[in-house]
Write a structure and sequence with these properties.
Blueprint: H1 2-17, H2 28-39, H3 43-56, E1 61-67, E2 73-78, H4 88-91, H5 103-107, H6 118-124, E3 127-133, E4 140-146, E5 155-157, E6 162-168, H7 175-178, H8 184-201, E7 206-211, E8 214-219, H9 225-236, H10 238-242, E9 244-251, E10 254-261, E11 273-277, E12 280-281, H11 285-295, E13 307-312, E14 318-319, E15 330-331, H12 334-349, H13 352-355, H14 378-391, E16 408-413, E17 417-422, E18 425-430, H15 431-448, E19 454-464, H16 467-475, H17 477-482, E20 486-489, E21 494-501, H18 509-526, H19 532-544, H20 553-565, E22 575-578, H21 580-586
Parallel strand pairs: 1-7, 11-13
Antiparallel strand pairs: 1-2, 2-6, 3-4, 3-6, 4-5, 7-8, 9-10, 10-13, 11-12, 14-15, 16-17, 17-18, 18-22, 19-21, 20-21
The structure holds adenosine-5'-diphosphate and magnesium ion (MG).
Length: 604
């Protein structure tokens, strides 16, 4: 057994070297290698440092080439400001940086790196080539380092303006560290993740990644919203983009924007959670808690929300230089920041403090009790009922005491009906009508805040609608936009759909546009003096009726909660209550033997 001998010799070696020790300075290379232990853990950490240097140098395009998961080669080229010939050696020396000069600089540091540790650390554990051409120079200069300081003076080489750092044979001289590397695939996975994070933080920077001569990522600069959405899809997947809500809010000198996944997109791991504070990725408990809380009633216990969010605030309110890997922050106004994030996300999701602006009145509550508050675990609880009730004979005590007015969903019936169970018995809901009314209410709420939140389509959709309607679309562009639909005229008879109301995602964009233009034409032809906006809004809401995209139990549960809050419309009931007595009467039974539930008829 080989392993046996090894520890024994190790111990021997240790007792020897533990003997004398007077204080002495660490040789530079050793100091750098020790520092490398902190900065350079694996290929991904090298890539992170190198990319940050590119960005600090103002690069607008970055090319990465990687071999064997980054262990064989990492080559990063940028078109940034470059390094002057005389500074090349210095760039590889410890605590040499161009970014911080004084203590005051450190207070308001805005560059990503500033410790001057990365390059010397990397050079101490690899074979490194640093080639650069500064703006003012007419050619590039190169220095070479092999596990230590540069081996000689800079040599001239052809190079475009900018910098290339090439790192080969990582940990070739520190075998103990090399042992900690995982498989090339795993290492590449980490490295890829680092690149994704940066891709999402710098939309204006072009990024290309090749691994073992295969193109993995190729991102052009994203300047408008459509391009940003495309980059988001390239990095996080088209699925996320489709199932996410775009948001943007500002208040009290803070701005939060980005995308949050809708609850149906929850994940089994917290692997799609990007939060940027003033452009810098942070992993922060306070932030995570705030977002989590906004989702609390919407996703199962043990599932994780997905989000890409950007918080911008005055740097003096946050302390970014807390942790060496710079992912944790300290907020001076923690409570304020927490509440702001929570409110914004809750509002985007249409829940919690954000959506509850109006009073929630109990309507049609058969037993006269007020609807229960939505406590944590609401969905989980609904699911438990759902599973137990759909699986076997329902026992009366499976409905907990705080069942909300319209109860928990049991089943969706053909024809667009929902069967639910509440404390008084069964509830039958007209799903179409319910979706329409709830959508109407949400659209109204959006309008009252200025305009309805919209979401861009991944690819704009062109639509032939006829001359009259195309002209109307153009003429009433602003009004239509306030409803969350963006239409532009493409030609004499055609329009393009660019955005749809976020809360109508899942419905057919062509259907939305057509129905809206139809209503518009009708209203204008009829010259009715009714509110044009209302008519258009209803035409949009009508499209939601048939949208079965959100028929998961948790969505249906959410829908029931919203129906509970609607004002009753006597001309069009949304649901009926069926008590055991009603059923007994239906079957012409003598008596149920139980309590008579008050109010046999439901109103909705
Ligand atoms: P830090 O980034 O903390 O200053 P580094 O060791 O990462 O320390 O880099 C040392 C210095 O080398 C930087 O301050 C910068 O002046 C220069 N440098 C490194 N990479 C680049 C690059 N891609 N373009 C321009 N200058 C660079
Ligand atoms: Mg750096």
């Amino acid at each position: 057994m080989r392993g046996r001998r090894f520890p024994i010799t190790m111990i021997g070696a240790m007792t020897q070297s533990a003997q004398p020790s007077r204080i002495h300075r660490l040789p530079t290379v050793l100091a750098n290698q020790i520092a490398a232990g902190e900065v350079v853990e694996r290929p991904a950490s090298i890539v992170k440092e190198l990319l940050e240097n590119c960005l600090d140098a103002g690069a607008s395009a970055i090319n990465l080439e990687v071999e064997r998961g980054g262990v064989g080669l990492i080559r990063v080229r940028d078109d940034g400001s470059g390094i002057h010939r005389e500074d090349l050696g210095l760039a590889l020396a410890r605590h040499a940086t161009s970014k911080v000069h004084t203590l005051e600089d450190l207070e308001r540091v805005s560059s990503l790196g500033f410790r001057g540790e990365a390059l010397p650390s990397i050079a101490s554990v690899s074979r490194l080539l640093l080639t650069s051409r500064a703006d003012a120079e007419d050619r590039g200069w190169q220095v070479v380092a092999e596990g230590g300081p540069p081996t000689g003076e800079p040599a001239p080489v052809p190079h475009p303006p900018g910098t290339t750092v090439e790192v080969r044979d990582l940990f070739y001289n520190t075998p103990a560290r090399r042992k900690f590397l995982r498989s090339e695939r795993t290492e590449f996975g980490h490295l890829h993740e680092v690149i994704k994070r940066i891709a999402l933080s710098r939309f204006d920077t072009a990024l290309r990644l090749r691994h073992d001569a295969r193109s993995v990522l190729s991102l052009s600069p994203a300047r408008d919203e459509a391009q940003r959405t495309r980059r988001l899809a390239a990095v996080c997947g088209a699925d996320f983009v489709e199932k996410s809500l775009a948001l943007e809010y500002s208040a009290m000198d803070m701005r939060l924007w980005g995308w949050v996944g809708d609850p149906s997109y929850s994940r089994s791991q917290a692997d799609l959670q990007y939060f940027y504070l003033n452009g810098r990725l942070v992993r922060d408990k306070l932030v995570q808690h705030a977002v989590r809380q906004a989702y609390q009633d919407l996703i199962y216990h043990g599932r994780h929300p997905a989000y890409v969010l950007y918080l911008e605030l005055d740097p003096s309110v946050a302390d970014v230089n807390v942790h060496p890997t710079k992912q944790e922050v300290r907020f001076r106004e923690a409570r304020l920041v927490h509440d702001f994030i929570y409110r914004c996300v809750a509002r985007a999701l249409g829940t919690g403090a954000g959506a509850d602006a109006g009073q929630a009145t109990a309507v049609g509550w058969a037993t006269g009790r007020a609807p229960a508050a939505h406590g944590p675990g609401r969905v989980g609880e609904a699911m438990r009922d759902y599973a137990s009730l759909s699986g076997g004979a329902p026992a009366p005590d499976t409905v907990p005491g705080d069942t909300p007015a319209l109860g928990r969903p049991l089943a969706v019936l053909e024809g667009g009906f929902l069967l639910a169970r509440n404390a008084a018995g069964l509830v039958l809901v007209d799903l179409r009508a319910a979706r329409e009314r709830v959508t109407q209410r949400r659209l109204f709420a959006g309008l009252e805040e200025g305009s309805v939140r919209s979401q861009p389509l991944l690819v704009p959709l062109s639509l032939t609608v006829g001359q009259r309607r195309a002209a109307l679309a153009e003429e009433h562009r602003e009004l239509i936009l306030s409803l969350g639909l963006e239409l532009t005229r493409l030609g004499p008879t055609s329009v393009a759909v660019h955005r749809i109301p976020a809360l109508l995602r899942g419905t057919d964009p062509a259907g939305l546009a057509t129905s809206l233009l139809e209503a518009l034409e009708e209203e204008i032809r009829g010259a009715e003096s009714g509110n044009l906006g209302d008519a258009l809004l209803e035409s949009l809401a009508a499209q939601a009726g048939g949208n079965a995209a959100e028929d998961s139990p948790e969505h249906l549960d959410g829908l029931l909660r919203e129906v509970e809050r609607l004002q009753a419309d006597p001309t069009r009931p949304l649901w009926v209550q069926m008590t055991p007595n009603d059923l007994a009467a239906y079957f012409r039974r003598e008596s149920t033997g139980g309590n008579r539930a008050p109010g046999g008829e439901g109103r909705g």
